[in-house]
Amino acid sequence: MKRIVTIFLLLILMAGCEIGEKECAHEYETNITNATCTAKGKEEQICKKCGDIISHDIEKIAHSFGEYKVVLSATCTSDGYEEAKCLNCDETLSKVIKANGHSYKETIISSTCTEKGYTLVECEVCDFEEKKNYTETLKHQFGDWTTIIEVGETTDGLEKRKCDNCPFEEERIVSALNYIDLDVLKVELIEGIYIVETFEEFQLIYDANILNDIVYFEVEYHDDNINTVLSNLVKNSSINKDVDVNLSYSNNIYKFTVNYGSGPINKPQMNTNYIQLDSLNKTVYESKRESDFDNFKINNSLMSYSVETSEQLFYCLERRVLPICKSGSQAEVIYNLAKDVLKNIIDDSMNDFDKIKAIHDWIVMNITYDNDLLNLTINNVEDLNSYRGFYLEGVFIDKRAVCEGISKAFCILANIEGIPCVQVEGYQTLNPFGVGHAWNKVYLDGHWYVIDATSDGVILNDQYEVLVYTYFLISNQQMKNKYTEEDHEDIICEDSYDSFENMEYSFKEMTRAFEIESFDEFVVVLDYFEHAELENFSVQFELDFDYGESIVDELQNAYSSLEIYKSSEYLKNGDLITLLKK
């Protein structure tokens, strides 16, 4: 039975549409997707009636590449490449273009006086260059020095010489007075490592950096005895600064780290003041300079130097070098104040003696000796170097200073006016281990003289200050009776100057000198003193005649001849007599 059913179903399937629907009379449409270089195409026939599909693949076509074109050119050192593109698709082929390599040419560069010679290798195609085969510098070959500016008695000269091998010219200042050198100011400061061969070169580098407050610098020097080197640098330094130097050494390099402290700040001090007695000896200031006057002799200096601090200002002016003050700096403030003083006390018709005396008198009459600071020094108080009395600030701003500040002020005022002057430091001859002292040596009429404005402000009874000329233009030997110098020993002050012979006063229509050569002149100067219309004043003169065994008796005799019967208060130092009225 099952077999009969199976045969029956098979017959039905074979009959097809004869049992169901009738067979489709197909009507095909053809769609073609073209083949590309990267994908096969396809041809399809689709019956519009029944959707029957008949399809077959169309094989891919082959790439058709064009010519290679350069995309990145090769250089001397790097490869390039070129590409060929298929004309039918985006497919590309590429290949490397090998680097060309340099095309060298060589040029010989000869040595000069300052630059080494070498062979210059250059590529003719690119900017590659190389230097090799160096040769040593020729070094300058100088001719003789030629005078450009003649040296004068107190004005520097200038000489120049030319290298025979190149256009370089060298100048040097010929100091009118070879009392001080300028080498430190000629050092060029750098940020790298200084390379020196001698200790003298090392000293200049050290001094230049300390002068300019450089906190850190390095020096290559082949001597590993670090403690001795530092000790000698400090001992021989021309820069008088109390600095804290930390030093390390490795691989021949000295590394300096320097602490300069607070510098001159206005430390609080007591207000001890003295009554300044007026003086019949003092220079009467009658300024004939305009307020904008700036034609000072220092402007003629052949050398200048940039400064910011008052200590740098002092260092330059002591060496008669024109200071170029940084705008707004303390150096500018002090320099302008110093020039203001000179505008008011100096007349350009004055000779150098008159100018020196005017500076001396202004300092004694206007600057109070800071005895409080002296006591702090004696007691060795810490941080003393921050007190302005040791600096120019004490004189020109506070009007209170000790010998250090006073001698610095005298020095710069004289040098601004073109009068050579240095500061001298030393000690009490009879007490070498006591408090030190500072004074000046000044050049006048072809000779050097000692001058100590600090000691010429005599303090009486801790109450009065008196202007005297005991230490005004004296000799080394006279100064050594009280103080002994520790520097500038090579500046010899052989004699004293005839100061009182050159100091004059007018009285009863006559002009006379304060050098008293007879009893009659003694009477006249006492008469002048007694008729002076001043309060609290003094006069000093030099007795240059035989006044017997007692100046008291001679004074009484002179007053008796004037019919004045009194006893006068006076100070006596050798032949120098100072009368006081207070």
What do these coordinates show?
By secondary structure, the chain is an alpha+beta fold. It folds into five domains: 2-58, no CATH class; 104-135, no CATH class; 177-259, Translation Initiation Factor IF3 (2-Layer Sandwich), CATH 3.30.110; 286-485, C8orf32 fold (Roll), CATH 3.10.620; 504-581, no CATH class. The model is unreliable at 7-20 (pLDDT under 50).
Produce the secondary structure layout.
Blueprint: H1 2-15, E1 28-33, E2 41-47, E3 53-58, E4 69-72, E5 80-85, E6 92-97, E7 104-109, E8 117-123, E9 129-135, E10 146-149, E11 157-162, E12 169-174, E13 193-195, H2 199-211, E14 216-220, H3 226-236, E15 244-250, E16 253-259, E17 275-276, E18 278-279, E19 304-307, H4 310-318, E20 322-325, H5 330-345, H6 352-366, E21 368-369, H7 371-378, H8 392-398, E22 400-401, H9 403-416, E23 421-428, E24 437-444, E25 447-451, E26 457-460, E27 464-467, E28 472-474, H10 476-480, E29 483-485, E30 504-507, E31 510-513, E32 515-516, H11 519-530, E33 537-543, H12 551-561, E34 569-573, E35 576-581
Parallel strand pairs: 13-14, 17-27, 18-33, 19-20, 21-22, 32-33
Antiparallel strand pairs: 1-2, 2-3, 4-5, 5-6, 7-8, 8-9, 10-11, 11-12, 14-16, 15-16, 23-24, 23-29, 24-25, 25-28, 26-27, 30-31, 33-35, 34-35
